[in-house]
Amino acid sequence: MGLRLGPRLRRGVKVAALSASLIVLGWLAWQQVSLSTPLRYFQISNLIVEGNGRVPTAAIIDSLALPSNASLLQVDLKELAAAVLRNPWIKTARVSRRLPTTLLVYVSEHVPHTIVVADRPYLVSEDGLILQEASPAEISDLPLLRLHTDHPFGTGERIDPARIEQGARLWQRFHQGTLGPDVQAREIRLEGDGSYTVSLGSGLPYLRFREEDGLQWRLDRLARVLKMRGTTLRELEYADLRFADKVIVKPLPKGGA
After folding, report:
1. What spatial distance separates the first Cα and last Cα of the chain, rounded to whole Å?
2. Higher-confidence position of 20 and 76
3. Which of 110, 103, 136 is nearest to 124 (CA)?
4. CA distances from 90 to 110, 139, 163, 196, 228 (A)
5. Considering Cα of 70, then 74, then 75, then 77, what sign does the dihedral take?
6. CA atoms within 13 A on the CB side of 153
7. Suppose 102 and one of 84, 98, 107, 219 were both cysteines; which one would form an S-S bond, judging by CB atoms 3.0 to 4.6 Å apart?
């Protein structure tokens, strides 16, 4: 039996060895071809961009900087996503392949959350990223925060998101009628000591708050002070609500502001 199986076993080993050699040679040839020349069958001929609204599709495609003969199998997806993310409006980017010739780019965009006025007005996202300069039309639709700075800002820079969010919350509270339907914030200044100055507009005082203050509690105390003094908001120059044990109010000078 051993003599009969010997030739068959030797033939099987030879066939297996030959098959393995062909597989290795084929893999090496494939690697050589893919590294040296673009595979025309997988050349990118279709680019799909999804998820964008403000950023034009053409701008996203241009940011990829793909050569005209780029192969779908050769491009680095992570590098392409990083290139798309250089646009400050793009919040997330994911690039994937769809064989044989389609490259798919899916993005999500930042949403303008506030206007921050420094050297000029800027659209700023919820996480404090400066997106671009703001137009007059956009200024009228978003919370307006003013920030003193020693240097001009630029697109892509970031402002402390905690302060931006606190300022935006103050703005929303005043626009929900906290002091009445006719009393709304016109501008909120982010002070260097961490406090906030709320400008209520012409004929009304400005109010000072601390970051950690409970807004409604402070405003209720102000209402009690006004009642005790027999006066109204329009008769004040300012009210300082930053302190835990007191409310400071300054009446308008005699004869008006």
Report:
1. 118
2. 76
3. 110
4. 6, 21, 22, 30, 53
5. positive
6. 25
7. 98
